[in-house]
Amino acid sequence: MKYNHIGIPTTERFDAEIGSAHLKITVSDHADNPFGIQWQRYWDDAPYLDRPRELPTSHSRLTTLTPH
């Protein structure tokens, strides 16, 4: 596995917002940040539990998938 990015929830607007109507979330492009930070602003009517709206999440990239 290799680190890809960290998603940090916010309620504030940020530069270069990317909206996703079907997910009801607005994000930043983590590739444009030297530390791989993706700002995430959940819409008021987004169908998510409170935890994803409040806690950062770390995301990794898998290089291979092998069955056990």
- Alpha plus pi helix count: 1
Overall pLDDT metric? 90
The low-pLDDT segments are none
Order of helices and strands: EEEEHE
| Helical proportion, percent range | under 10%
Count every beta strand, where a strand is a DSSP E run of 2 or more residues.
Answer: 5
Biggest sheet character: 5 strands, mixed
Distance from first to last alpha carbon: 16 Å
Can you tell me the overall shape?
globular
Strand order of the largest sheet: 2-3-4-1-5
Task: Please write out the topology.
Layout: E1 2-9, E2 18-20, E3 25-27, E4 37-42, H1 50-54, E5 57-61
Parallel strand pairs: 1-4
Antiparallel strand pairs: 1-5, 2-3, 3-4
Describe it:
This protein is mainly beta and 68 residues long. It is 7% helix and 37% strand. The protein has one helix and five strands. Strands 2-3-4-1-5 form a five-stranded mixed sheet. The longest helix has 5 residues, at 50-54. The mean pLDDT is 90.
What can be said about this structure in brief?
This protein is mostly beta strands.
Keywords:
single chain, 68 residues, mainly beta, five-stranded mixed sheet, 7% helix
